[in-house]
Amino acid sequence: MDFKIAVLAGDGIGPEISACGVDVMTAVCEKFGHKVEYRNALCGADAIDKVGDPFPDDTYNTCLWADAVLFSAVGDPRFDNDPNAKVRPEQGLLAMRKKLGLYANIRPVETFGCLIHLSPLRRDIVEGADFVCIRELTGGMYFGEKLEGDDRAYDTNAYTRAEVERILHVAYGYARRRRRHLTVVDKANVLASSRLWRKVAQEISLQYPDVETDYMYVDNAAMRMIQDPKFFDVMVTENTFGDILTDEGSVISGSMGLLPSASTGEKTPVFEPIHGSWPQAKGKNIANPLAQILSVAMLFEYFDLGAEGRLIRDAVNASLEANVRTPEIQVPGGATYGTKEVGAWITDYIRNH
Ligand code: IPM
Ligand code: MG
Q: Phi and psi of 175, rounded to 5°?
């Protein structure tokens, strides 16, 4: 197929890992005879500095032009400790999600055998854990009515039936392609919004009798993910709970630098690493490009190009086996590879296999 790709490199380590993702995408397209055209666009702090807006209209239009967005990371410490900042890089991310209607955020938690020793969990607990968190991404507290006063402030956790229904259908779709077990995570013992989620989920579950559905309070889910991550196959939850649980999920595999994600919905889908912009590492050639590279695999898989995705996953596994690793996951005494070197090794592997 012909691909039009919007490349949003963003801030911090974004540009370095983005370059690796683009190289891998190009190598796979050459190999499989797909045409690919890229357009770069500004986002995050970089866009604030250059044009005063973290998700400018030009960027939005480039995303609409594209078949998919390859996104890297946004965020800059200059804004983090300034509660008075008028505009923040993260607003660009939220604007992108809202404007592209990206209501379904898919965050797989997979373990890599050769990295299990880096997990904060015991090997017997984490080995073989493999689940997907489906996070609702355009509703809830992130986008509900807000008040920001000096003496009083609130965020509203609003959901409509339609918003809950559509994300549940996405989640059931994943469950059907996996081990047919869906856990609906909410706080229905306290929150009205969660009771709507649970009611709608109980109704929708009747349409998927082949999937086992269970319901879990979010506090309990946070605990279960640590005690028994293998319990989960697919979990679905609202925006804020999903934000928190996916950070928890991302570390149990040993390194946050390994996990990709996809955000899909009404318009162009976005593929990005789960980790952030790691400003301290900017320009140092030490960031792990694997999450970004695996997000390219998710991109191909989204378009039903499984062999392309498989080749990327094989290349990543081969790089780990060969100990071609960035410092944070390198084995003791192993040589150090930079972002560029890991990216180049994987690109070569793809060309030669
Ligand atoms: C994430 C991030 C974002 C979120 C931030 C950067 C706004 O933490 O994608 O999980 O809270 O959604
Ligand atoms: Mg988060």
A: -60, -40
Nearest bound ligand to CA 96? 1
Task: Dump pLDDT digits (tens) for 186-212.
Answer: 999 999 999 999 999 999 999 999 999
**How far apart are the C-alpha atoms of 181 and 295, rounded to whole Å?**
24
The residue from 76, 186, 187, 208 that is catalytic is 187
Q: Is residue 243 among the annotated active site residues?
A: yes
The residue whose CB lies within 8 Å of the most ligand 1 atoms, and thus the one to mutate among 76, 93, 244, 277, is: 93
Residue with tokens 């609409």: 64
Alpha-helical segments (H) within the chain: 14-32, 44-51, 57-65, 77-80, 89-99, 123-126, 161-177, 192-205, 218-227, 239-252, 290-302, 306-321, 339-352
247 is catalytic: yes
Is residue 219 annotated as part of the catalytic site, yes or no?
yes
Q: Which atom of ligand 1 is nearest to the CA of 261?
A: 9
Helix axes 239-252, 218-227, angle to 10 degrees: 10
Question: Cα of 275 to ligand 2 centre, how many Å?
Answer: 8
pLDDT tens-digit readout, 80-94: 877 778 899 999 999
pLDDT of residue 115: 85
- For residues 15 and 46, what is the distance between their CA atoms, to the nearest angstrom? 11
DSSP 299: H
What is the longest distance spanned by two Cα atoms in the chain? 63
Cα of 247 from ligand 2 centre, angstroms: 6
Question: Coil, strand, or helix at residue 322?
Answer: coil
Phi, psi of 253 (to 5 degrees): -80, -10
